[in-house]
Amino acid sequence: METILLIGITIVATIWIIRKENKKLKNTYRLHRANKTFIEECVRLLKYEKYGYYKLTGMKYKCLKEADYGIHHGYAIAERYNQYDKAIIIKKKDNGKIIACVENEGSRQLYDFIIQNEGKVHALYYIWKYSKNRIYGCAYIKDRDEH
Length: 147
Known about the structure:
alpha+beta; 6-stranded antiparallel barrel
């Protein structure tokens, strides 16, 4: 009787572990598929050598919905009237929602370029969740006119 109970517990535990690992594998596959799409889009943009790579911050304060994650086209907009710093925000192209801010480090030249281009330039950005409370983001933003 104890042997049958032990075998039953072992089978249930094995099935539970296999299902858990399959779920992790599906999440990893989804992330890799999104990364591949993002890389393909970036290669297309970088052919013209007018886009630079920038890290994004502040996503956890923007009340992002599931539809805001992933790869999207949008705009990098210079905040002209920010009294604290020369900030650049990323807005989603289809609905104008503010998604993130460009990390301040190294963005001074980008800010000046955006101001010269009527305060708004094209951006391709990628926002993803990692773990439970970690949100990451990066963007390729048009930051020059010449090759």
